[in-house]
Amino acid sequence: MSDDPNTLDLVAVDAYLRANLQGYAGPLEATKFTVGQSNPTYELRTPGKSYVLRRKPPGVLLKSAHAVDREFRVQTALAHSNVPVPRMYVLCEDDSIIGSAFYVMERLDGRNFLEPTMKGETNETRCALLDEMNRVLAELHMVDIDAVGLSDYGPTGNYFERQIARWTKQYRASETETVADMDALIGALESSIPADDGQRTLVHGDYRIDNLMFERDGTRCIGVLDWELSTIGHPYADLAAVIMQWQMPPGKEGRGLAGVDRSSLGLPSDQQFIASYCQRRGLPGIDNFGFYLAFNFFRMAGILQGVYKRALDGNASDPARARAFGAYVPMFAKHGLAALG
């Protein structure tokens, strides 16, 4: 057992899988994925098959954060839905095995794009890939949560009210310095929450192209990944999360489309993406979209602050990169205020 999130006790994992996963046979090798800051994720390789392991980071964590049990539950529930997810194999909630809870799932054979510009793709495939991203998002929000056993996966009541309260609490718990724009954004959001319109759906919480896996030789999505922030809530939060990401600078850090000539790459405008989503869900349109966009900037600022605090505390999955994230908090807060107008 190790307290270092970058190491994995292969002897312990091997013994656990031999006892709990039918068909498993070692010997076992593992490589840590370099992307992702929250739950350390590893490729597990055996002579006959590969798997993926996601674990909760060791050490003292914020309450309700890094809930790998919830990730396992929601993906298990979606196994036979129109939302593609990897197959779930086994969940271990015994911290004594490797130092924290973990689960093992299918290793998908596909391709993943870190940026929405999708360098190397043709305009036709870029257009098709983002349309598929749009389709899967609409399917996600049309999942019958009662039928798949997820009606209790999140509290009832106004989603944005509870999310703003939750992330404000998380932000305050990891706050390292006063950010005036963040304080102003919190106040502005609290005073402008839209009335509850009755929409209560499954939401992913971090829906963006780098959390999707596509088939290797086509444009079909074969897996939606990283369900840590998923809950039952309001679907516009997911839709606005896509648009928020696109407002970031292009490149491996921002992973956005700010300043990019989208039409020259076959990429849709924000308005076209929103319109396609509304058409798929039979919606007339979305009022007050700026609020939902501002909410996402606020939540991302809170997440980044938590990652930064974990770096200072020595619990980050990628410490050097996590420390750099602290500088982004004021920028996201500023963008959030601008979105509110």
From TrEMBL:
GO MF, one example: kinase activity
Keywords: Kinase, Transferase
Annotated CDD domains: ACAD10_11_N-like
InterPro entries in the record: ACAD10-like, ACAD10_11_N, Aminoglycoside_PTrfase, Kinase-like_dom_sf
Keyword Kinase: yes
Presence of keyword Transferase: yes
Residue intervals of the Aminoglycoside phosphotransferase domain: 30-253
Protein name according to UniProt: Homoserine kinase
